[in-house]
Amino acid sequence: MNGAESLVRSLLDADVDVCFANPGTSEMHFVAALDKVGGMRCVLGLFEGVVTGAADGYARMAEKPAVTLLHTGPGLANGIANLHNARKAGVPIVNMVGEHASWHIAHDAPLTSDIAGLAAPVSHWLRTCESAANLASDGADAVAAAGGLPGKIATLIVPANTAWESSTGKAQSDPSPTLTDDQGSTPEEIDPANLQRIAEVLNSGESVAIVIGGAALRSDALKSVARIAKARGASLFCETFKSRMERGAGRVPVDAIPYRLQSATTLLEDFEHIVAIGTKPPIAFFAYPDTRSELYSEKAEAHQLASLFQNVPKALDDLEAILDTTDVIAELQPLELPVRCEDGPLTPGSLANVIARLLPEDAIVVDESVTAGREIFAATQGSHTHDWLEVCGGSIGGGLPLATGAAIAAPDRPVFCFEGDGSAMYTVQSLWTQARESLNITTIILANQSYDILKYELENVQASSGEIALSMMDLTRPSLDWVAMSESMGVAARKVATVAELEEALKHAASTQGPFLIEARL
Amino acid sequence: MNGAESLVRSLLDADVDVCFANPGTSEMHFVAALDKVGGMRCVLGLFEGVVTGAADGYARMAEKPAVTLLHTGPGLANGIANLHNARKAGVPIVNMVGEHASWHIAHDAPLTSDIAGLAAPVSHWLRTCESAANLASDGADAVAAAGGLPGKIATLIVPANTAWESSTGKAQSDPSPTLTDDQGSTPEEIDPANLQRIAEVLNSGESVAIVIGGAALRSDALKSVARIAKARGASLFCETFKSRMERGAGRVPVDAIPYRLQSATTLLEDFEHIVAIGTKPPIAFFAYPDTRSELYSEKAEAHQLASLFQNVPKALDDLEAILDTTDVIAELQPLELPVRCEDGPLTPGSLANVIARLLPEDAIVVDESVTAGREIFAATQGSHTHDWLEVCGGSIGGGLPLATGAAIAAPDRPVFCFEGDGSAMYTVQSLWTQARESLNITTIILANQSYDILKYELENVQASSGEIALSMMDLTRPSLDWVAMSESMGVAARKVATVAELEEALKHAASTQGPFLIEARL
Q: Polar residues bias: where (chains A, B) (predicted)?
């Protein structure tokens, strides 16, 4: 057995059985080992941003990590933006990055680079394999470090010779992390004094906004939070960008903190306390001249019951025990489909109306629609039960890969991906993987032909908007033809401009096998 | 004046007048300043790999850096692979990376990341601006650190508040680099003892292979090298991947060291000395089991007259003075267009034949054709005078952006880009920028529908090739439709499968304004 085969066996033993890959020469022995061992599904992406973003989407739905296979430093670098997004979302990923054979590194070949240096800023755990004999245990340690959901980014650098040299297949495990960040060193235990203080705050009669994220957005935790809020008259909001939220009919309805600074601060300004659960007390996405970073009042007191990486269900159980909420019944959202809007040109509002009505039971929604789709979230509150996934690290280009990975993890559920045209272009190669794997994904491109978000931000940062500035936000010269783009990668597509056309296209997509793309002209 | 405006003025004063950009909120004041100041051409890329790769191509032809505008850590990360390629090619680039306002960083907003950590592995010079008052001088220092051609990667991190806060526009310059790598600390001076030793080697009558790269591939340096080789009977080769080589009719003809390991070692095995000029003694692209990294014999002695970053023309002058080559006349390549091959299906050979005949005078060629285009280089030895640019860091996806930047730098020269389908997919968004800027680029996709190079490498690393391994190199499920892909981004395109069709398509491309893409089915 060589090192590569021992690593594949070790990953399979740890229940990691999906590999998102764009391999190169240094990873050929790992790829060859996949044929020898069997049992690992290997999904090819034509760009590494697809690979890492799909691993993110997969882990959010599978609640366990996939392994990525990346070709040396530049291959890793291409995947960093979506690793950043996954890291901020608390999603586990195991990266396997190929490196030159150890003796080749000093020669500074074209592909030689500081892989560990590139990996460190996005990795909670990072190790370079030192010999073929260690590769099995290094793989097991990486999976252990990545954990479940919420989880962490574990990166294993594998010099090519450790993959091709021989191994016994077993070695002593050393699970100690090589690198930790601030969140990695956060104690998993909930501080009892803090718990007590938050209970006091909730009992005080002062106004409280509970802000939830991470694991607090799952169905059972939501019920618990809703009981607490109802019992003590607290207001309940979820964070702006959500890793995975279970919502729709039969779930707890929660409004999100708006992205727009003024709306967010207005919403929160009167609360005397902010209690964050599974997230941090809310802060602005960007800083602006003469504004503070916190979205809540200077006079408010901010609390955190549990961080993204702490045990949120246990923290909620403990808090409910103190507050004695056993008799409280959480109010659940009934199925409330909106009345069909009039036919006519698609607008953000009419598009949201169509989606809210036609979203099927048990759908997975990936939302990276940025400005043009901002009405969809509120509109789908009473739609059929669904999961809602967003990009949590602010790096555009997460959406199409997230949908790709989610569909691999949950092949029996329909996946809908709402994408801005600007962000879709970042990882557009995802469509090819969706076609190759015949994934059940309907992508809706909200084609406003603009980096519209930047027009808002330009004003927000109090910068003037001249001709050059506006041209940097303009995607009309030339305009992108999303139907041709999609079909060029094997995904059937259709352009729609009215309510009726969108309805018809969604019905067509639902009736066909494999991916479909709808270009919605707004 | 605010910091951003002072930075724009400082860059323009330093003769940096092209900005490749994908800005976000943190960079809005810089973009606004471009309107206020005037004189900076700002070119939008829809993905940062386009932005950094275009800056590389621009600097190779303009012989001075462009500035890139990148949005925080993830924006930089998306551009790292092509910064890696530029770094290996010795190409100057000034990166301006936006960061949150200084007081916002500690709040760990979604886009907060360790930007300096990400930048360090690809930057020779790296600094975070500390106040608006410093921004003008920080910009000047970055340009100075980047230098000309050959040059370096200088990265300036700009917190948003230093862009919007006010500045006097001038500040004390501090050109000391914040970070240097091994090559950065290489003395620029040529060691006289080393020079003398190399002269002795050339005079010894022992067999010598001169291997040239970097600045030794420019027309005058080539003549100097050719005189030295001719005077002392040395063999002359250029490195496998060339940053910018001036060649064709009227230039010095030089064969390249082949990519394939066996071919390269066979070529070099009998030489007693290797003299590298503007590059290192040649090493293998990858290491393989039981092979050494050096491409030359264990018994050979390796020398380096000048590194990539040393003064190659001066080193050659000094060596010529010692060897007294004043009476030697370098043999120049006559115009030798091949006889037209028979019409028929396109093969690597017939494609190279067409290109060699039809390449126009003064063209710029960007070659990232990987396997299918490997015959083009030799075939175009006697073609009309042209510049030849390749990706030097082994990270695929450099070609389309290089062509984009080269066309911006040299608008009056026709640019030809030979691309493999696998590598073209990495930065396919380049086509949109080519259309938007109406650049005179003809892209020829050598569509073999495969990561063909990996099939060779799989064998080379002695790995077995099972079903999964081969499927990871297969781009036929679905096959990419390059005409639809290109047209979706506004670049007219045509598919060709025969010699006559390719000839016709090239003539059509030459007769039209703006970019054109040819999908060559092999």
A: 165-186
A107 interfaces chain B, CB cutoff of 8 Å: yes
Give the residue from A18, A118, A309 with the most B CB atoms within 10 Å of its CB, the best one to mutate. A118
Check CB contact under 8 Å for B395 and A479: no
Nearest Cα to Cα of residue B332 among B239, B386, B257, B254: B254
Q: What is the tens place of the pLDDT at every residue in B66-96?
A: 999 999 999 999 999 999 999 999 999 999 9
Task: Please name the residues in contact with B472: beta carbons below 8 A apart, sequence gap of 6 or more.
Answer: A21, A23, A31, A42, A44, B451, B454
What chain A residue is nearest to B161 in terms of C-alpha separation? A289
Closest chain B residue to A108, measured at CA: B283
A466 in contact with chain B, both atoms CB, cutoff 8 A: yes
Does residue A179 carry a pLDDT above 60? Answer: no
- Strand-pair category, B153-159 with B125-128: parallel
**Is any Cβ of chain A less than 8 angstroms from the Cβ of B513?**
no
Does residue B27 register a pLDDT over 60?
A: yes
Q: How many residues does chain B have?
A: 522
**Ramachandran region of residue B446, left (φ > 0), alpha (ψ -120 to 50) or beta?**
beta
Interface mutation target, options A104, A155, A456, chain B, most CBs of B under 10 Å: A104
CB atoms within 10 A of CB A443: 28
Residue B330 per-residue DSSP state: P
User: CB–CB of B493/B486 below 8 Å?
Assistant: yes
With an 8 Å Cβ cutoff, are B425 and A46 in contact? yes
Q: How far is CA A282 from the centre of its chain?
A: 18
Going by C-alpha positions, the residue among A435, A387, A396 that lies closest to residue A419 is A396
Give the residue-averaged pLDDT of A1-19: 97
The partner residue sitting opposite B32, judged by closest CB among A46, A469, A490, is A469
Inform me whether the C-beta atom of residue A454 falls under 8 Å from chain B C-beta atoms. yes
Question: What is the mean predicted confidence (pLDDT) over A46-66?
Answer: 98
pLDDT score recorded for residue A184: 44
Q: What is the pLDDT of residues B294-320, one digit of tens each?
A: 999 999 999 999 999 999 999 999 999
- Mean pLDDT along residues A165-184: 61
- Euclidean distance between CA atoms B57 and B391, whole angstroms: 10
Say how far apart CA B518 and CA B510 lie, in whole Å.
12
Question: What value of ipTM does the predicted structure carry?
Answer: 0.96
CB contact under 8 A, B160 and A461: yes
Residue to mutate among A27, A28, A40, A157, with most B CBs inside 10 A, is A28
Distance from CA of B4 to the nearest CA of A (A): 11
Structure-block tokens of residue A51: 């690979």
* Whole-number Å distance between alpha carbons of A297 and B326: 80
With H, G, I as helix, E, B as strand and everything else as coil, classify residue A95: strand
